[in-house]
């Protein structure tokens, strides 16, 4: 069921640092690996707690975080498009207080992640280039009947998921960057004059999203099996778990894979960049090394995590640390209904799920 229309925005504000260093007032240049992310969605991760926080708590610590806004410098001759962070002309980070008439059970009990979770995050479907007009960081605190969800939306061109999951937002910003050797200017340029020449927005078809829990014991068994079958001792827990998930999803797609082959034989085609390019892939993101449950808001340990719409598609797999720790892993898998149903009917796969 889609509960998204029930989320109510109660208030919102922008938060800026109380004290700004001279260094942080300078333009913040983006590196090569920052610029390649401009068409990618914002990172959207959040934690669910059983009791609401004091509402000024997050604001108090956000006001020590320096955040800017993307800016662009365009030249016509030669054609160039330079994107950087303008730390001076920005309203700051955004803080939102929302509410929804749902309980913690409404979020964690369903087999599949309910669509309402997408509305627990600011910047729904926004890509990183939208940082020209949107905050680079937004925190939305959504009050449930018996709990609270803290959702973080962060521009992926200026921060990675390790920063997002640590979220020690009271630290000063890191302004020292590395650039390729021989580069005469830290302001890297793209050979374009308009965003339409290099920015695309990916809209994915409907899929189901489910979180599968793998205990430490289960992962140990998968590792032992993988090493035994390969007559080695070098296969890691991560490698064995990733391979197991990949093989299981591939089996679940058996009918669609054969259908693809038959369709191609009837009407051959060559791949173009589109959502269809990934429909038979398994792409793994995030990491169980990201300490999701290490965030401290004065609320105790979170019940669980959830993520937003960003960067999800058929075959996207995200790995997170299990709540119990000790090497356990939660795996978030996105598949269309027929593939998800086949995966859930796979006895070998489900036997490993705790």
Automatic annotation (TrEMBL):
Pfam families: Transferase. It comes from the Eukaryota. Keywords: Transferase. GO terms for molecular function: transferase activity. This is Uncharacterized protein. It comes from Gossypium anomalum.
